[in-house]
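writing this on my phone so excuse typos. first protein, seq and then structure
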Amino acid sequence: MKTLKKISLLFVLFFIFIYTISIENIPKTIFIFEGEKINFSTLWGIQIKRQDSSIETSTNLSSDIFEKAGNEKLTVSLFNKIDIKTIDVNVMEETEIIPVGEIVGIKLYTSGVLVVGTSSIENKDGEICKPFENTGIQEGDSIIAINQNIVNNTEELINAVNEAQGESINITYVRNDEEKTCEIKPVKDKDDKYKIGLWVRDSAAGVGTITFYNEQTNSFAALGHAITDIDTGDIINTSSGEIDNVNIISIVKGAKEEPGKIQGTLKNNTAIGNIYKNTKYGIYGVIKNADDLSINYNNKMKVASRQEIKTGAAKLLCGVDNGIKEYDIEIQKIYLNNNYDNKSMLIKVTDQELINKTGGIVQGMSGSPIIQNGKFVGAVTHVFVNDPQIGYAVFGDIMIKQLSEIK
């Protein structure tokens, strides 16, 4: 009898375990495109239905087509008695894009000027002063105004400080999207110039890859990650920016513990496009001169929802070697529920030609588009420091959602 009870208890625990795992494997958020179906394979007794519908299913939603763009919610219940989970369904307009893969120069201008450091000042009497001390302003803040006058760049800030002639100035600055104010009394240094002890920057520049071009809206996406300040590590709050053609000077091959990089200089010609958005999922904007970009208009394709992506072989488009080429990669892991950062997929470079050229993934390849089964699935975002052949990529559906918000 005791043996029977133990077996029964083990069976019940196993039953509970299997159902718990099944429920946990149902994603909390789903991105799909108009006209797509959601296919769920669930255990008996687990029911999923639309919150605005009386139609229920105990196995899947394969008969339900989501026809209109927008947001919907699904309810997961046990035997239609206990609600146990809500699924957010993001239905996006079906989109066709042209993957690009061209390496470009990127220039970004901050909103106001970014504080990147502080320093003491020696005044005319040889005293060491810290005008910024006890004001609350710190590294990573963006100064947007002096005495209620807007500051656009470092030159305007320097002029405003000197024009005050040593009188206290009111500084308006932004931290984490919150506007703050403080007063600083400038100090005249040994060179008869007024200083406030803040190191600032108003722009950033680098090299990255254009991910895709949307011919219908004339817009683009690039990088797959944010442009951050080299000193503070914070995402730069941009006021404007542009992408330009670049001359690739050299490629520093990646190795273990030594990430490689693409080195290049910006060409002094007309900007290819304007940047309007700098996010943790990439930079986004509008193309002004499409003729200056290597766009293969015959390569237009649909964007895969993350549910369509499979582990296994895929292609990477990249312009590291005399034009844009396809290289072999492998998608090793897919993180379906990841909506909080740009590490959506784990990828590995398997193409020996690319490995010989770069060692794998290098700085400047961020944004390189990934294609699988004739659809755009995402873009390269990170490289592993201890293995340059392995890195992360962001989902294409996330990039499309970001792009739609700048229209």
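second protein below, same order as before
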Amino acid sequence: MYDIMKVELISVGTELLLGDIVNTNAQYLSRELANIGISVYHQSTVGDNFDRLIQCFDEALSRSDVVITTGGLGPTKDDITKEAACRYFGFTEELNDKVWEKIEERLKKYRKNNVVSENNKKQAMFPKEAQIIDNEYGTAPGAIYEKDGKKIIVMPGPPREMMPMFDNKIKPFLSKESDDVFVSRYVRFYGIGESNLETQLEDILDKQTNPTIALYAKSGEVLIRVTASGKDKEHCLKMIEKEIEKLKDRVGKYIYLIGDESISSSQSELEKVTAALLVEKKIKIATAESCTGGKVASMLIDYPGISDVFLEGLVTYSNEAKMRTLGVKEDTLKKHGAVSYETAVEMARGAAKYTGADIAVSTTGVAGPGGGTKEKPVGLVYIGVYFRGVEKAYEMTYSGTRNLVRDRAARDAINFVRELVK
């Protein structure tokens, strides 16, 4: 039993160091461990080198109680994680017949020629001291090695094998190390940056003890995790609710979603929330896009059931298309230009009239990298919204690449729709 369990993550694999594979395992494990009240103090990545991995174990366990590894459990010579863990603790590996039977059965099931390579026995080699963890989705079992109060937990590298192993076996094992229950809730913000949000909440963050608040920057938005520890889940949720009420009082206008960990991993939930709101209120929508080229429509139709209210997505890139399809006046384009408040409003109004939608949203701007002028620089975008006779447009200025300008404009367009109909 540890007063404060210190955990480190070691990701094993030369392919990670070379950048051939993105290390999503470390992100997943850090988040899941935090959900049960365990903080990750260090993360390391090491190639398929036996001596360097032993050195990593030595450094990690000199300052932490538990090391969790992912990768290096395959049947080839460069898969060295189990062997290094055994060497570190002075354990001797031997063939585990029961494990080998399961591996052999699984391999024969999926190999047409029914031939099992001899090197696959490497995955069934474990010391008697190991607590072996079954792999329900692959041939590489995990294991827990323990000696003198220190633990090394080894898991396979492929996420589809590692994640269920952690959820079903490792997480319950680690949760037993604490008498407290840990519960987290997540709050998503749009329209305020991470640094500004932190400034607004500085005094709350400085005084936090239990519950704790953690900020995470997402793509164009911010996620806050509120975690409480206590005797039971109900007690924790009451503490969390009080903390969330403080957030609502301070920065509630930027909050668009509150929920459990299911809303925490994506870069954004904004389009889902907006689409669900449209479906719930039975508000029919159409889009008229120029610089975003269909991104707004694409993001909305990712939501299942949106067909009940999404009427049409129009990409009117040229001035001719704006006039012909949306009824934008030629005089408006000559006087104010395609990138203007007036054109954005007429595009939204025209899309609503053309499709019969209750609400329509439009985008027109200079996405870059060229085409900008002193009066209308790259990054200038107008977003128009028409909602049952009420019409307005927003002038936005973005920085970054062409795709970044288009992405941010599309998300802002969806957010303006959400704000109007919520």
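The CA atoms of residues 365 and 414 lie 16 Å apart. thats all i got for now
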